[in-house]
Fold this protein.
Amino acid sequence: MENNIHLRDKSHQEQIERWARYVRDNSNWKEKLKPFLDGQIIMARRAYKTLSETKDGKRRIKLIKKLRN
Amino acid sequence: MKRGIGDRTILDDFVEDFCNVVEKHVKYIVCSGFVAISHGRSRATEDIDMIIEKIPEERFIKFHNDLVKSGFECMQSSNPKEIYEDYLINGDSVRYTRKNEFLPEMEIKFTKDELDEEQIKSRRKIPFTKLDIYFSSIESNIAFKEEYLKAEKDLEDAKHLRIIYEGKIDENEINKIKERIRRFRYGK
């Protein structure tokens, strides 16, 4: 992983720069980002909950989270 | 210092609630990905990285018990002695979540060398984030991401921070930290 990094294409890099400038220059950036940040946590919690209710689900969650049994 | 309810995220509430407990027991810094995310970087994360001062076991037990009393649990063990002796003191991290929640997680580890200790000494609150928590410096985060972590997301985080603080970043400081990273982490 150290030196063989393949950055994604030019348009991806441009999007990172465009968004960073938007954040720097617009105080309402957090309103726009909040649904994305919260959404990923809400979805992941839902997925873990569903998985935990399945047979063997708790063991698989431990595997996902690399926890000792 | 808290933002209005409207734009506070699940991560904001989690990290401030957690840090309020930590601060009573030990000096800490929040570093790495969450620094970029709290500056608006739009990427996913499951965990927030925290480095804390190395403390004796008895102090850690009190600290852990206070976290539990405040509604957090450690994913590795509920036994603070085990958390301390099997993980933290060996340089391994442990993860805390709110009780019965799978995420977000706070990943905690002890300082491992002078570099970590320096980051804690120079910790600061960062007004841009509007969060009442201590971070490692922007220069330190950029240096670690560009010189040590180097994954795609880390390089993109560094680029994001460089744009946010364009014209305000101390490049000499970044270069000094990078030199120390090479010395302490790579033995160069």
Notes: Chain A has one domain: 2-68. The interface with chain B takes residues 1-3, 5-8, 13, 16-17, 19-21, 23-24, 29-31, 33-34, 36-38, 40-42, 44-45, 48-49, 61, 65, 67-68 of chain A (CB under 8 Å).
